[in-house]
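Memo to structure team: turn this sequence into structure tokens by end of day. - J.P.
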Amino acid sequence: MKTNRTSGILLHPTSLSGSAGIGTLGAGAYAFIDWLCKAGQTLWQILPLGPTGYGDSPYASFSTFAGNPLLIDLDFLAQKGWTDSASIAAPEYIKSQGRVDYGAVVYWKTPVLNKAADYFQKNCSSADRAAYEAFKNDNSAWLDNYANFMSIKAFYDAKAAQEKTSGIWFSYWPAQLRSCDPSAVSDWNASHTQEIERIKTVQFFFDRQWSELKKYANQKGIKIIGDIPIFVAPDSADVWANQRLFQLEEDGRPKCVAGVPPDYFSATGQLWGNPLYDWEAMAKTDYYWWVARIRRLMQLVDFARIDHFRGFEAYWSVPFGEETAVNGKWIPGPGKALFDAIKNQLGDIPIIAEDLGLITEGVRALRDGCGFPGMKVLQFAFDPGEAGKDGMVNAFLPHMYEKNSVVYTGTHDNQTMQGWLDSAADEAVQIAAQYAYGRKIGLDESRRLASSGELGKALVRLAISSAADTAVIPIQDILGVGDEGRMNAPSTVGTNWTWRFELSELTDERARHLAFLSALYGRNL
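Reply from structure team:
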């Protein structure tokens, strides 16, 4: 019987090993796709692909349209003849394994990519030149703004470093450039032609490598789930070039910023600091910027997961300058009007709504009115406070799932499943064990099953067996790693987004077991 049930793996390319300093779109990514096929999976979910800024977070990018240069594989550039192979050797302080040291990778790889861009411009074939010019033409709406922004930013960042100051563009750029004055930007462009062309060339490298990787995945029957944050970074080409679409003061400073109130992750809420949209101004343009954003994403992936979906129904607005998110308030968002505009201009887009956090009836109505599947996180299912006398009532328990939903054992913001089992309260672990095995289990046995890794495997099986049409498992939970494999701890900086693993851990045995589960529960028919 043919079903709509699918399953896949959550893995950001930065976590792949085998390449210098950071995972790339090179051989490791192709090997992972091959393993997904062996494992009977049809989905690969990634995090946002943009160039990372503050805190190395893919959710704080310099552009929501551009690609992350750090993901470009240098060996593949050399194989295409787009760079001198002698120039790409990594120094001794850059490792092929171990955690990502973003500072070291940026320091080494950025000038290497710039040299590759210059090499390409001098030595590329006529066919490659034509492809490059077509890329620039097709993407000029965002590429020009991004290249100008990064060029200006590099100059004034260097100047700020000399003066031992720092900040975001609105705090230290000259007034005319800060306001994105067309004449000032044009003058800058004319006097920085080579540098701007270099930035565009690096984006061409990313686009070619990602397009080829996606084509390979699709040919193997793997579809890619992309991720789009609801908000964009304050230090971004997106805000700088579209200031009238955001809630900003005349000098570019935000009036209010985004966050969430106190929640599961933080007692003082999460102060993200993103500028908030001026939804009235957006509506007057028929949401053209958001439509362009979705259009670009769907050129790169097959499905779109929209982060913090509840912010479209109402968003948490915190006055700029607050130290925490406590003193915020809920403001109505654009609601269904935004998604109607997207559908009217782009057609039906396969969207997953990240409907976690404080979810109200209004958020559910918006999600269901759009027909989007929501998310279920198994790690949230075993709260002892939600165990009623007549049975379990927690909506994250598998027997409560709607078919039109996506189940995860955890997300990039959660502990790994093994990390959670190692640190969770005794009662929660016991509830998880009894639910997973369907029998009375004492605390000692529950803890033994948890520490041995057996309970973690059982919970992965629970997610795959659930009624949810789609199941996505973080690769960490397939490998059974503890909190050393956690990707992000919200409201912290310094160690996030750095985890990598050895490709040798993607064994045939693990692939066979995952393929068996997917077949057993009708997810690869």
